[in-house]
Amino acid sequence: MPRTLASDTTRRLPGVTGEGTGGPTATPKAATVWTVLGALYFVWGTTYLGIEKVNESAPTLLGAATRFLFAGTVLVAFASVRTHERTTKSQWRAAGIVGVFLLLGGNALVAVSENMGTPTGIVSLIIALIPLWLAFFDRVVFRSAPLGWRVVTGLVGGFLGAAVLIGTNASAGRAPLGGMLVAVGATLCWTAGSLYARSAPLPKAPLLGSGMQQLVGGGVILAVAVATGELSDFSVSQVTTASWLGLLWLILAGSFVGFSCYLWLLRNVRTTLVSTYAYVNPIVAVTLGWIVLNEALTARTLLAAVIVLASVALIVSAGGAGREPGDEVEGSVEAGIAEPDVGVSGGDGA
User: Fold this and answer.
1) Burial letters for 197-206: b for 16+ Cβ neighbours within 10 Å, e otherwise?
2) Which residue of 22, 70, 128, 176 has the lowest C-beta tally within 10 Å?
């Protein structure tokens, strides 16, 4: 659950090599770049598996709330000491709104979808639709940029691939239709939060903004967990070692390591390269689901996956949801729940 790179693939952030102002003093070695990028691919691709492991013995919403509250507390404390940036009520309000959309509506719904029985690989492919939704609202609804053939092809192909993915798996009984629709709802929530975050008064420090969003979002998820009775019969003793390890992985690797890699890449390489995580992460998730969880991989699912991911690649390469220079999202956790954990986050991003 983590800015959505699909929303700024053509924009260059200050601090990215050769772009903007105040860039790095030295160009990083190719080996370093690919090591960090590979770590981002792997870490954020594993978060779907981590969520599944947490769900095995822990309440779904409680697991999500725990990791976001813990990670958010650490990030806010660390960033506050490091940056000395003072937050305002309006920033907390904005962070809360973004956090509710991205974390409750986005990441938590990913966990709910998986808990309903939707295979992790299918969830990751549905979440990969986020760049398409962003492009759709940018280019079609808001008309912030002209439509090009790559965007049109990507939108038509991507949504067609999603329909094939959901329809074939639902009709064959390999995944619950309700669970897959919940995942679609998560993509819409993440898109809404991402769009709002563009003009929201968030802190300048990304780590601080991410921590604030996780704190508020985690708190709201916890409140929902209590209101829905998740904790009524819960005992900590019922949580297995696998679930504890899954939660630890989501916090340390998903939120901390993944987000650190993401920020380092944004400041040292072109965003078009960083944005490749949007279609590589689902490949990692699908592969892990097949190997670790014995999730079925049918010819139609693979065909739908190729169509969806190729469409995402088209959108990314076209800057399908791009923004003009200077229209940065500061302090957001938009990690494209192409990564379901936060990351920036997810994020996520789940």
Assistant:
1) bbebebbebb
2) 22
Does residue 125 form part of some domain?
yes
Q: Which pair of structure tokens corresponds to residue 163? A: 């329909």
pLDDT digits (tens, 9 = 90+) for 172-189: 999 999 999 999 999 999
User: What global pTM score does this model have?
Assistant: 0.83
List of residues 6+ apart from 252 with CB closer than 8 A: none
In this structure, the chain runs to a length of 350
Q: Residue 105 falls within a domain, yes or no? A: yes
DSSP 239-264: --HHHHHHHHHIIIIIIIIHHHHHHH
Tell me the pLDDT tens digit for each residue of 292-306.
999 999 999 999 999
Q: Tokens for 332?
A: 């957001």
Look up the domain containing 157 and give its range.
5-317
How far apart, in whole angstroms, are the C-alpha atoms of residue 330 and residue 339? 19
Instruction: Categorise residue 79: left if φ over 0, alpha if ψ from -120 to 50, beta otherwise.
Output: alpha
Determine the angle formed by the axes of helices 120-127 and 30-55, rounding to 10 degrees. 120
* Domains contained in the chain, number: 1
Q: Does residue 343 belong to any structural domain of this protein?
A: no
